Amino acid sequence: MTRPSRHLTPPSGFLNDPTGLLRYDDRWHVFYQHSPGPAHGDVSWGHAASDDLLTWQHLPVAIPSDVEEEVWTGSVVVDADNAAGFGHGALVAAYTSLRRRDLNQSQALASSTDGGLTWRKHGVVLDIGSTDFRDPRLLRHGDRWLMAVARSLDDAIALYSSSDLRAWTHESDVVMPSGQGVWECPDLFPLGDRWLLLVSREPETLYLLGDFDGRRFVPEGGLQPLDHGPDLYAGVTVTDPPDGRRVLLGWLDSWTYAQVLPTEPWRGQLSIGRELGLARDADGTPYVRQRPLAPTTPLALDAAVEIASGVRASYDGSAVVLERLDDRVPGFAGRWTVPTGVPRVEVVTDSHSVEVFTAEGRSASLHTLPIGSATPGPCRS
Hints:
It is built from no helices and 30 strands. The chain has strands spanning 13-24, 27-35, 44-50, 57-63, 69-79, 90-99, 105-112, 120-130, 133-141, 144-151, 156-162, 169-175, 183-191, 194-201, 204-212, 217-219, 224-225, 233-237, 246-251, 266-267, 274-280, 286-292, 297-300, 305-308, 311-315, 319-324, 334-339, 344-350, 353-358, 363-367.
């Protein structure tokens, strides 16, 4: 089975959310949710490194599951001042510890003093007794550490502060719309003259623009889709990117069909890295602009065009219309629109994916199926 040449896939087993994206020692380090079998389960942190976010060096499993816990999504920071006491310059990971015996979700720490190759677990530092409390995102703000965590079924992103990465104080909640699904994978950071809160809700990565004073995030406007296709989920950004650039990767897949897609010995891939910026429409409305960190192919959509196996693109006067025609997987075929005033796009194609970017920097990401593949079934790993 042909592997993607530009997108990160696991050597074997199942990949889902990116977790702990980090720029460290002049390399990109990408940790990700990794299951040893062909479907989600017994989750640890996989690890890969890259010089360009296009070619990948696979490294040993970073933070493994054990008899007591699975190691779910989180983030990694460099503790330059030794606030946590693990050593000056130690890498510190915050991750969701899924306790096997009762499925409780709490936030735990691990540290590495060898650049992320080996990790030592330090146990739980934040527990509210919930089975839906996950995906800690660490960030530095002034002289404090902050953590954004999803209270998934409470329709809230909770914000905590700490001086030592160990003892955490609740600061505020960002209230999300109720009755719209499970909220996951928050990320909070400045972008231009605004702050941006990323959050995922199946099947989308969404964002809120607003203001943040170190304790409370105040949205301006409503949730907006980061990507207009069906297959960009759990999008988060890299800690300590060069020159302050804000670079995002997401899971290029969907829970609708991720566990039955006919690839082997792996399942799952991450998106192309994207540099984010703040732009404005003609009426002054701000939005997040995305540029792929990969070579693209320019296309003029004067007529309907097949831009990848089973994917057709056209222009209707106000939007790019994308149609995925392949119906070998239930829920796979569909139609999506990307607003744009120009009938031209930049396309990144690879084995099993196509990512489309408009002139305004709006995007759509679609998984594609292997040509000639049979009806999906269990994957050998």
